[in-house]
Amino acid sequence: MANEFDVIVIGAGFAGLAAATAAANGGRVLLLAEGLGFIADLPSTIELYGYLPPRPGHVVRPWDELAGLMQYRDHPYAKIPARVLEQSLNMFVEAASTMGLAYEGDQDQNTLLAGPAGVPRPAYLAPYTMAPGRVDDRSPALVVGFDVHKDFYPEYLVANLNRFRQISGLGEEWRAAVIHVPGQQARGLNSQELATMMQSPAFRRHVIAEIRERLHTETRVGFPAIFGLDAQGTRQVYQELTVGLDRQVFEIPTLPPSPPGIRLAGEWLRYLQSKGVKVSLGFRVMGVTAENGRVTGVLVNTPARASTYRCRSLVLATGGFWGHGLSGLATGEVKESILGLPVRPVMPPEAWGEDRVLAPQPFVRFGVATNAYLQPADEHGNTLYENVFVAGRLLGGYDPYEEGCGEGVSLASGYYAGSLALSAGAVGD
Amino acid sequence: MAIMPVRSLYLQEQWGIDMLDNGLDQCLKCTICNTACPVAGENPSFPGPKYAGPELARLIRGHQPPTENVLDYCSNCRLCELACPSGVPITELIRTNKQAAYRHKGLPLTNRLFARVDQLGRVAAAVAPLSNAMARARWVRPLFTRLGISNGRPLPVYHRQTFKAWFSKRPVRPAPKKIAYFVGCYANYNEPEVAKATVEILEHNGYQVLVPEQRCCGLPALANGDVEKARRDALFNLEQFVPLVEQGYEIVTACPSCALTLKRDYPETLKDRAAAKLSKHVWELGEFLRDLAEDGGLRTDFGKVQSHLAYHLPCHTRSQSMGEPWADVLAQVPGLQVEALDAGCCGLSGTYGFKARHYDTSMAIGQRVFAAVNAVNPDAVVTECGTCALQINHGTGAKVVHPAILMREAYGRRESQGGKDAITDE
Q: ipTM value of the model?
């Protein structure tokens, strides 16, 4: 039947796409999501483990430090075998390279890259367009911005970065240059619009000519991340700028919308479809059917009539509060949104938040409690649904902002959940 | 087996008066909608759905009418709503904002004109083919310019004998299963062959087809900011169709935009209980036939139709979240080799691309579809949307055919030579 699947994945963020990628290896997979995931807002770099409290302590060798995180029983990394974590990253790098988005890393070390405001941020893997932009080596760079770009200020970025470079004893300063975009714009352009402009050969020629006039001895040129909205367009711009400037060029993430995120999300969805995954975006899952502790189908709130899809197993990768996987922050009773799964830790609402603005927030660690196989479990550790697997931000016990591990947890738990769901479906035969 | 409801059971039960405000408050300003908007991608004058929808709606809630002239850039393709991770009815908000803006400023002449494709159709069909000749005449062009109609693209062709005129002369063919056919303006005035094929396919599958009194579905009026006209048309259609639903009729239309309007806009925009009841019984033709096939009820006495086709999925089919029903149905016809274009929005979006101020944007959006068609180089393009068909033909010169025409062909209801009539005839 057209509406029967081995694995249904709900959610189109890093965790959902990773789960679908893993399950597509031999299964009939349906990816359901209320909309596009939030990847299009993200820089598309992969953080594995970036920060050791207290901030701003960067983790240099994440694999060596992971054991520290794994001591916390509830941390997702404590539930994912190290070899699975490694496999999930390999799976991602391989899939991304097939999509035309090669990822690079510095062997076992984090790479320090510039954030949108010039604050260095550690990434374990970065797309080839960003990896050459490391900020912790001696080679200076020219950071280029555009006068009509409302989301990127190279002078500010470079000032922040040079403070860091000075403290770190890296000597040579980075410089900023602002390029005039001809043709008066009524308002500032965002990164997505500039990425579209970059697809024009005439505009690229103008950009190259303007930069050549401003280049001194820099060996690298940094740009806001506007090389393109898909893999092919990005490759073209990257190559042309590299040749035209005769320098290493790289992208620096901007505020949303984020072209590197847009291109990763788009290419990944196309990749999944090419692997036979059915993708249905746009409508909220409103419930499931279940029998004897197993979910048997998913109901989607489609126009006119609800759609029912039957499945052997289910991956929940619906996100946290931001992605609506968790709800009830306002009512004081936090629940997982689709199955009503219990959320832990349970604490009185007064304790959810921390008054100091930049302090770690306890509610960030809320999530669905699972057993060691990512199946939802009650407070006594009993499995609630044998064929449901939880992945990504919906999992509790970690703080992606404090720990710098958001994409790592999502990729690893998504990949693990997708693989487990596929074999659980086979068991149910 | 237990069904566990989440939040609310069906959208129908959410159609309280608060729906819009709730939707507005769900906007997290994440900007994902802007990344999916075909217009924002091509025309920097449009600040994108996030601004035109939820942000302006906030101003209106604060009793400030929107003054900025950006709302008309929205083409009503509804891809933003599919992309939104938070379930915000963005297009719906944009249309409400349009209405508020035009209530303040008055509806522009161009919008008033395009809100009335039904009345235009009635006049143009009555004097066809004179109307077609006039539309091509050079001396008419300055008038078009004044009306805001693009001179860049050919206008749809009108037929003296509308579908409804043809159908009314036809004897009733009784059958136990009943269909009420919602024809739609485009099929009635511009593509009567599609409407005839629809009737013949349904009859071939054992249905009696009734064509009740009906008006425009109201979508052109909604998209052009004339909600009052849309409401009048919708109420008329509801009066005609709801009693039929109560008698056990299912409603079928071969136009994806009419289907979407009947399914979603009647209940969501009009907030009418009868509309919610109606919407459950509305089927796009391909969806109806696909489900029939899955239940084993579709006749498969197809003749061979040897052809290599490229399938374009209209945005308004996508917005109904039913997969690609026509691709599934055509896959059953022997000889047809159908390749999915998967190149996004064609850029025409109903009346949008016919406006002079949107012609360039419309064509820029269409480039991806045109390139995909040229890469596939098919015998013909197949799509269920009449205006997508016009755009693809305009952009590529390729023949574009409605799947119902192909299916009728396959059922052998027309004498054919080599089975390629539907594709090679114009």
A: 0.89
